[in-house]
Amino acid sequence: MHELSIVQNIIGIVTMEAEKSGAKRVAEVHLEIGQLSGVEYDLIEFALKNLSQGSVIESAEINIDKPEGSARCNECGNVFALKDFIGSCNKCSSFDLEIIKGRELRVKSITID
Amino acid sequence: MCETCGCGLPGEKAVIRVPGEEIIDKEDDLHDHEHDHSHPHSHDHGSDHHDHTDVARKIVTIETNILMANNLIAERNRGMFEAKNLTVLNLMSSPGSGKTTLLEKTINELKDNMKFSVIEGDQQTMNDAERIKATGVPVVQVNTGNGCHLDAEMINRAIKRLALQDGSFVMIENVGNLVCPSLFDLGEACRVVIMSVTEGEDKPVKYPNMFRSANLCILNKTDLLPYLDYDVTKAIEYGYQVNPRLQFIKLSAKSGEGMEEWYQWLKNVVG
């Protein structure tokens, strides 16, 4: 359940930024968690619900961008959508892929009152 | 942090101990976790009541990696390892793949010519640290409690408990788990994933994050192959599917078969 650590980090980052801005409450947290990041969205939401109590994001609306994976083939340069790590190039069938999207784990922004 | 309820910060709860000593890591947050999960609190808004609709909402751009705190400490660790000329390996696998046996054998056979220190990661017990202690090299145990992985902060604290000699290997035996440890950079030079032939051949495609991030895959317990239906070629093929640059070494830490290749790999890592 590394999602608990992830959420603890999210709360830490948001709390620090809210303090810097002098905000007591955060209305919205905008996250970007890619589909190939190795994180389960359900577990993130579960952990956020449970860990945010008493924090600045207790009543915040959580919005998560979930970028789909995409890869560049190191053999032929083809760029294509990648659903999971086990895919191969849809042109040349090579497994030598560089993941260029989908591994995001980022706090993008917060909205404060 | 407490992985059950989330109290405390990552790294605060892990207990770091040297075999034969009482708990000496006094900076550790060894607070009692016997609280209920309601986290009750009441705060007084005082006279500061204001109408929220009157205040303009403001968007603050952050664009920060969620794992930034861990990654920063990992880079500090890396800098310290470089300065002391340490070669640090992060050994990961599912429970029971033979990580500790591999370490015992390796240390016993190479310790006359190479220097080793070990950080053992487990949820509970000093068992693995005691086994390593018997080889005579410095060892420290990190007990993560309910935690499912080691993080950079735990390594930063644990490393200070080791009487490190410049130019030595530091072997970090991560918590037995093929999922969570893969996301947490510890500052290591290389990642080694160990899989044993008593597991399924498809471990690499079942846990692609782990195998994708590894530099070397050790296929352990090959002495058992005559008794199993395990298809080594298939396992290696699955490994290449998620990571075409993954190196493989087949060995048996028990019989010693294939260990020379692993020792050579270790010597090459130092360069």
Throw out a few tags for this protein.
heterodimer, A: 113 residues, alpha+beta, three-stranded mixed β-sheet, three-stranded antiparallel β-sheet, 2 helices, 6 strands, 27% helix, B: 271 residues, alpha/beta, eight-stranded mixed β-sheet, 8 helices, 9 strands, 28% helix, globular, disordered N terminus
Binned, the helix content of chain A reads 25-40%
Low-confidence stretches of chain B: 1-11, 26-54
Mean residue pLDDT of chain B: 86
Considering residues with a beta carbon less than 8 A from a beta carbon on another chain, report the largest interface and each chain's count.
A-B, 40 and 42 residues
Give the structural class of chain A.
Answer: alpha+beta
**Biggest β-sheet: strands ordered side by side in the sheet of chain A:** 2-1-6
Unreliable stretches of chain A? none
Tell me what the structure shows.
Chain A is 27% helix and 31% strand. Chain A has 113 residues and is of the alpha+beta class. In chain A, helix 1 (2-20) crosses helix 2 (41-51). Chain A is elongated and about 55 Å long. With 271 residues, chain B is of the alpha/beta class. Chain B has an 8-stranded mixed β-sheet, with helices on both faces. Chain B is globular. At the A-B interface, helix 1, strand 1, helix 2 and strand 6 of A face strand 2, helix 1, helix 6 and helix 7 of B.
